[in-house]
Input
Amino acid sequence: MSDLLTPELLANIGKEDQPRTEIVTRRDLRKYAIATGQTLRRYLDGDEAPPLYHVALFWDVVVREELSPDGVSIDKLLPKFPLEKAMAGGLQIQYQGKIKAGDVLTATRTLTDIYEKQGRSGPLIFYEIVMQVKREDGSVAVTETTTRILR
Amino acid sequence: MTTPDKAQAGDLLPVRKHVCDEVQLFFYNAVLWNAHRIHYDLPYARDVEGYPGLVVAGPLMGDWLAQVVDEWIEGFAAELVAIEYSNRQAAYVGDELTAGGEVVTVEDGQIVVDLFVKNAAGEVITPGQATIRLGD
Output
C-alpha cells in the first residue's frame, strides 16, 4: 500500500483538460525552425512542422498572474502532489502523417497514471500525461506520452 | 556513413555539434511561451537554483535528436513514426554538445535507432530512441 498516494489523489487519474485548438501558421513554423536550429529547407520555409513542433504549439499560454515566482506555469491538470521537486522527465511520441502550415489541430491532454516507486534516497511519484493531437477531420496526427518524476 | 536504405545494426548516424547560446535559448522559450527563469535569469539560475549557468531547455535537446533522424533520412523513402527521449542531466549555455545516433535493429521495414545528446565529458545527458519506417 502506498504511503503517499491517497485515494483522493489517485481519483485524479483519467482527468481530462479542455481540448485546445490552434492554427499552424507559416510564421510560427519559421520561428520554431530558427529557434531549434533546423537545417532542412521545408522547415525553415515554414511549409512543414518539425517533429517536435506540437510541443511548442500546445505549450500553455498563461497570464502572468498564473506563473509561480520561478516563472513556471502551473499545470491545472495536475493535483497537488505530496512531493514537489520535479526530476527528469521523458517523452514518447508517435506520428501519423505530417503537420503542415494551415493545419488546424486540437489537443486533448489526459492524466493517465499516477504511481509511486521507492528510489535510492526515498519515495518517488511518477505521473503520466497523454496528449492526443487531432486534425479537423478527426484523424490523429500525434500521440505524446509524458512521464514526470517527483521527489 | 550509412544510409537508411542500407542500414545495419551498429551503423552510426552523422553527429552534429550544438552550442546553445543565449539567443537560441531566448528564441526557443519565446516560441513556447516558457517564462521559467532558469533559462534567462542568470543570477536566479545560479544563486537561487544553484545551477552553474543558464539551463538549456529539455525539449530543445529532444528536438536535436529528431533532427539527427530527419537529416539522416532526408531524400530517402523513410518516415519518422515514433521518437522518445528523456532529459537525464542538465546542459548549460555555452556547453559543447553533440547529437547523434546508432542503428539498433532493421527488420520488417523498420529501423530502430538509439539517439543521444552527449556533453563535452562524453556523458549521455539526453538518451532517446526513434523508429523509422522505410517506404517503397
About this structure: Chain A has a mean pLDDT of 94. The beta strands of chain A are 20-23, 86-95, 104-119, 122-134, 140-150.
